[in-house]
Amino acid sequence: MADSPAGRIETDRDGDVVVVTIANEARANSLDDPMLKALAEALDPEALGDARAVVLTGAGDRNFSGGVDLQARDGAALTDAVRSGERLLGRAAAAVEGCPVPVVCALNGNAFGGALEIAMAADWRIASRGARFGMPPARLGWVYAAEGIRRFVDTCGAANTRELFLTGRPVDAERARQMGMVNRVVDRLELGDLAFADAMEIGKNGPIAVAGMRAVIKAIETDAPPSEAAEIAERWRQRAFQSADIEEGLAAFREKRDPDFTGR
Predict the structure, then answer these.
(1) 2-202 architecture in CATH?
(2) Contact (Cβ atoms closer than 8 angstroms) between residue 23 and residue 10
């Protein structure tokens, strides 16, 4: 667990799954600089060890996170502080996107600004019914970083990203699902169990297969040339075909039992 004066990033391990929680309920789970640093550190390969999936969520049942904590910054140098916070936010979002294992984001409540970008960096998102999401930089007078906008364009398309960013208007969970920001909208009491079930299901599958297909999807998603995506796929396919996991998977299928994958 990593603490800051305003909040903390909590990590808990349950089997093959690590649950990472943004915990700062008194300030809508907003993220100050130490928390942004701690979030990136929590997703480091050494910190995750042999975990096979991550659930990322917020504390409580009202907010995933209100975003970068502007109130915690010095008003006399607010612009510089905001730019510094943006850099740390970028690193945190990159840590989510580059996490060595899949990240399922459980949006337990409202997500605004940089917190929504962090959620968009996850592999997929499940939202609590009644949650609201928004990107307010236009209402605050600044232009959001290109890498952050890219995450929305990649997932929601350009037109939906324009609506979200140019109006600054929050959307509810169902509209977010229609825009492609979230995969499912569920009752709040179901959210944690469903996100954890997704992560557990990932953990039961072959780690090489999961990592390989995730790498190929990422290459296609980022418009890599078809030959590059094919090369990435072939490297992972060769690794899979030479592994003990494929033998175990096929044996388990024949024997009608659950496989016991080791990632070797």
Answers:
(1) Alpha-Beta Complex (3.90)
(2) yes
